Amino acid sequence: MCARTANASGAGKAGVDGDSFAMRSIGVVHSPYVETAQVPKGSGARHDAVGVLEVFPPFEPGLTDIEGFSHLYVLWVFHRATGFELVGTPPTDTRPHGVFATRSPRRPNPIGLTVVQLLRRDGARLMVRGVDMLDGTPILDIKPYLTSIPAEDLRRGWLGEAERDRAAPPGAGPP
What we know:
The protein has a single domain, classed as YaeB-like (Elongation Factor Tu (Ef-tu), domain 3, Beta Barrel), CATH 2.40.30.70. By secondary structure, it is mainly beta. The radius of gyration is 18 Å and the shape is globular. The strands form 3 sheets. It has a 6-stranded antiparallel beta barrel with strand order 4-5-10-9-6-11. Helices cover 6% and strands 31% of the residues.
């Protein structure tokens, strides 16, 4: 079980105790990354690594019909993170930002979210491209990637500004 508390949970539902939740891992990530320093980070980082999402046998029926989707959301646990910082400076900028405006692993609830491309399914194993998790990372959930938001309506916040600043020639001022 993957939980911040030692709550027991009932069959088929997460245990709840006040503002704490108990969750169980549904599987594990097999990734080429064994240390956090190996995971590409920062502006322009490419996430092309191939890995496997191995779903535990009791949850395999939940994969029924997943082959019809090209991309998946993977919710997972930053299982090596300790503590959290509400404000920090990410590697892509020199200014501090709130943790909820970043992808920092040092979060009040150490939950990660990654979009991967589904390459194929082999039973309870999903071969995917785009892993940015460490080998052995616990998986909390898998969902099909769907969006109805047109690309022109998406904003990238401070990250878009940082990317524009990095692309500008030295000495160039703001637009």
